[in-house]
UniProtKB/TrEMBL annotation:
Taxonomic placement: Bacteria, Bacillati, Bacillota, Clostridia, Lachnospirales
Keywords: Membrane, Transmembrane, Transmembrane helix
Domain of life: Bacteria
TM region(s), chain numbering: 20-43, 55-82
Name under which the protein is recorded: Cardiolipin synthase N-terminal domain-containing protein
Organism: Hungatella hominis
Length: 86
């Protein structure tokens, strides 16, 4: 037996290439992209886009945390070098 939930639920349907193209174009617009990531990740929409945006938000969060750690290490190194008189 075949499960017809994909045919009846548009949120479970596979996104077309055109839908992905529009999604990527919208996500390429500065400032709008962050808002749309949250709207699509936590709104009621296509599951494919929802999972993609959730993954994108996780990657952004990891990048921000790693950047903060890098800035802290570089800042501490610079402060130590300047206070040592080099």
């Amino acid at each position: 037996m075949e499960n017809n939930t994909m045919a009846t639920d548009p949120n479970k349907a596979v996104m077309t290439m055109g839908e992905w193209l529009i999604t990527l174009i919208v996500l390429a617009i500065p400032c709008v992209n962050v808002i749309m990531y949250f709207v699509w990740a936590f709104g009621n929409g296509n599951e494919n886009r929802k999972n993609f945006c959730r993954a994108g938000l996780i990657v952004m969060a990891v990048g921000i945390v790693l950047s903060l750690i890098l800035y802290a290490v570089v800042g501490a190194s610079l402060a130590a070098a300047l206070s040592a008189g080099y």
